[in-house]
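Appendix C: a fully annotated inverse folding record. The material below is reproduced so that readers can follow the format used throughout the book. The structure is listed first as tokens, followed by the designed sequence.
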């Protein structure tokens, strides 16, 4: 689970001309939506169509308003990391307005937060104690939100490009659903974090009362949806291979 490199993606390296153009454009253009990003969260997702598949995800998130957040998801945090998906997060108030079937496509964040699975990677220049206070403030809000995530690029299986239809993703809700220590420890080594320590200091973060329709992928309430997702993914891959 190391940062991806642009050499893994088909295509020629960025030319000197384009590097110059990109530098100039970034200096004169406003890029306001990107500059509005205010948090980097690292976590893991499972595919709703195949819950045995897990992928690491670096979220770069901004606030649309107090009840809606949006995150672009990359397969790392290097300059050449690939944009692989998006996640929308909404408050419980907005989630309550959704119909029953729509609710089943969203996930909770309680286990991710309380287990230490999700972290806000710290800059090297910030003392750990100060950063943990900032991280806690972010996670006290995250735990209250419902998320809906789609991945477009299945880098975990080595796809060289975004192939097939978008994939609805699930968040983990229990340690038994994945080889937790193996994947999270590898991430911790990369970011110099420790999920055991995170778990301990997050014990007292208040948990919301969840709607019974959330995390349906893990509850057997979304069998029809998962079957449809598997069918669509297979069709997309057949079409991709035929081109």
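Designed amino acids, in order:
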């Amino acid at each position: 689970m190391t940062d991806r490199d642009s050499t893994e993606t088909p295509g020629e390296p960025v030319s000197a001309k384009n590097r110059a153009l990109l530098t100039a454009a970034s200096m004169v253009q406003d890029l306001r939506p990107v500059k509005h990003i205010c948090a980097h969260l690292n976590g893991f997702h499972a595919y709703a169509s195949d819950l045995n598949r897990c992928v690491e995800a670096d979220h770069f998130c901004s606030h649309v308003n107090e009840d809606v957040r949006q995150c672009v998801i990359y397969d790392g945090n290097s300059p050449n990391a690939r944009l692989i998906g998006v996640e929308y997060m909404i408050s419980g108030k907005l989630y309550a307005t959704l119909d029953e079937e729509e609710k089943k496509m969203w996930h909770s964040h309680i286990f991710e937060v309380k287990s230490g699975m999700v972290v806000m990677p710290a800059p090297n220049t910030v003392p750990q104690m100060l950063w943990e206070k900032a991280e806690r403030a972010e996670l006290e809000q995250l735990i209250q939100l419902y998320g809906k995530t789609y991945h477009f690029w299945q880098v975990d299986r080595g796809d060289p490009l975004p192939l097939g239809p978008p994939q609805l993703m699930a968040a983990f809700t229990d340690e038994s659903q994945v080889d937790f220590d193996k994947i999270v420890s590898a991430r911790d080594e990369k970011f110099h974090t420790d999920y055991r320590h995170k778990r301990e200091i997050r014990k007292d973060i208040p948990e919301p009362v969840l709607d019974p329709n959330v995390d349906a992928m893990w509850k057997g309430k979304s069998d029809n949806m998962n079957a449809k997702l598997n069918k669509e993914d297979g069709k997309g891959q057949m079409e991709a291979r035929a081109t």
